[in-house]
Amino acid sequence: MKLITWNIQWGRGVDGHVDLDRIVAHAHRVADFDVLCLQEVSAGYPELPGCDGRDQFQALSARLPTYTAIAGVATDTPRPGGGRRAFGNMMLSRWPVLQVFRHLLPWPADPAVLSMQRVAIEATLDTPLGLLRVTTTHLEYYSALQRRAQVERLRELHREAVGQARVKRPGDAADAAFAPVPRGAAAIFTGDCNFRPDAPERARLLAPIDDATPPLRDAWEIAHPGQPHPPTVGLYDKEQWPGPPFTFDFVFVSEDLAPQVRNLHVDAESDASDHQPLLLELG
Questions:
Q1: Vertex 102, ends 1 and 13: CA angle to 5°?
Q2: Sequence-distant (≥ 6) Cβ neighbours of residue 279 within 8 angstroms
Q3: 170-197 confidence digits (pLDDT tens)
Q4: What domains sit in the chain, N to C, each tagged with a CATH number?
Q5: Which of 85, 102, 125, 272 could form a disulfide with 13 if both were Cys (CB 3.0 to 4.6 A apart)?
Q6: Comparing C-alpha atoms, which of 133, 230, 118 is closest to residue 186?
Q7: Total-model pTM
Q8: Alpha-carbon gap, residue 35 to 268, rounded angstroms
Q9: Cβ neighbours of residue 91 under 8 Å, at least 6 residues apart?
Q10: According to the 3-state scheme, what is the secondary structure of 83-123?
Q11: What span, in angstroms and rounded, lies between the C-alpha atoms of 219 and 227?
Q12: How far is CA 199 from the centre of its chain?
């Protein structure tokens, strides 16, 4: 199984142009992916630099018609002049998609800084490796208070999902809304975390939860033990990120999935966003 995660900055490349065809082409260059997790997808936002305001959730789905597309809208607000605008994440899967959740993450008041609502998309996928629960998110950038609360929520969601995966729910397919659709135990958490490898938020995300819940592990450390995380932000976009490049993007896996990690690769070639795509290979 091959999974790519990428903050695409609404398709805006280092050249300032928004080009979703380029995004899809660069992703295909990285790998013949089974799952594509995207952050910073927009609809109805012509104010964003280079953006024409089109619905990128629909546009990306149309460009990958053989994949099941899951939109996760975090910000849903009126559009000046009429209609609505949306901003959030997206997941596209080649494998059958079972249960899907769109978790709005905590957003405690922090009046000292800019912030926005954040969302985590969780989908249980029926893959050749078995049921896998994939969660992609984009944590708060400016507010450490909110980012810490979001990490705690991700830990709680992992604990909850593992507990549900280990018990048989009552009901059957005839129960309609109560039909017991599986929720995967083995898990991948990925996205733009807006913290660095040495941040306390990362340490907290990886900390033990309880005796029954496999902890999360950093896939980079599994695939490349002893090697520092490669930078994922600011390799080419020196207007937004004038300093040295750094790491904000991660892939975490539950400990029970760790033996399946074959590689984690950061693509250092693409300039189609201010972030780099990451490729996780399981097998």
A1: 65
A2: 2, 3, 4, 30, 31, 33, 263, 264, 265, 266, 267
A3: 877 777 788 888 999 999 999 999 999 9
A4: 2-282 (3.60.10.10)
A5: 272
A6: 133
A7: 0.96
A8: 20
A9: 35, 36, 37, 38, 69, 70, 72, 121, 123, 134, 136
A10: CEEEEEEEEEECCCEEEEEEEECCCCCCCCCCCCCCEEEEE
A11: 12
A12: 19
**Helices and strands (DSSP H and E) totals, the chain:** 5, 12
Report the b/e string of 158-197 with b at 16+ CB within 10 A.
beebbeebeeeeeeeeeeeeeeeeebbbbbbbbbbbbbeb
Q: Per the structure block, which two tokens stand in for 119?
A: 């969302």
Residue labelled with tokens 């050249």: 15
| 170 or 30, higher pLDDT | 30
Query: Rounded mean pLDDT of 147-160?
Result: 98
**What does DSSP assign to residue 179?**
-
pLDDT above 90 for 282: yes
Contact 271, 236 (CB under 8 A): yes
Separation CA 5–CA 66 (nearest Å): 18
210 C-beta neighbours (distance < 10 Å), count: 9
Cα dihedral 234/39/282/225 (nearest 10)? 30
Amino acid at site 231: P
d(CA 43, CA 166): 38
